[in-house]
Amino acid sequence: MNTFAIFLVLIVVVAFLLIVVIMVQNPKGGGLSSSFGGGGTQQLGGVKKTTDFLDKSTWTLATVLLALILLSNVAIDGGRVATESKALEGENIELPSTPAPTPATTPAENTENTEE
To answer: Structurally, how many domains does the chain consist of?
Structure first.
C-alpha cells in the first residue's frame, strides 16, 4: 500500500467522522446538548461541555482533514518534483512543416481574341 492510498483512507475516515459530528449538532443550538439538558435548564454542566466538545471536535477534524489533503498532494508524486520542462527543451520540439505560400495569380487577359 503506497503513501497516497494511506492518506486517502485517512481522509475518508476523517471526513466520515466530521459528517457525524456535524449531523449531531443542531444549527439553532439544540442538537445533542438539548436532549441531555432539556432545553433551558442545565444539569451539572454536562450540556455546556457537550456543546464545547462538539464544537472543538468539529474544528479539530476540519483542521486534520485540511492537513491530510495538503499532505496527500505531496504523496501523489512520491515527493518527486519535476525540475525540467519538456516544452522548454529546444531539441525535442518539432515544428509542423507547412508548404510555402503560393503567390496570388491574376487571370491573364486573353489578347488573342480581341477585335478592332
So the answer is: 1
Helix (H, G, I), strand (E, B) or coil at 100: coil
CA distances for 60 relative to 32, 72, 88, 110, angstroms: 19, 18, 44, 90
Helix (H, G, I), strand (E, B) or coil at 32: helix
pTM score, whole prediction: 0.53
Q: Which domain holds residue 4?
A: 1-19+47-79
Candidates 66, 62, 42; CA nearest to 54 is: 62
Cα–Cα distance measured from residue 100 to residue 115, given in angstroms and rounded to the nearest whole number? 40
In angstroms, the Cα distances linking 21 to 30, 52, 115 are 14, 12, 101
Percent of the chain with pLDDT over 70: 53
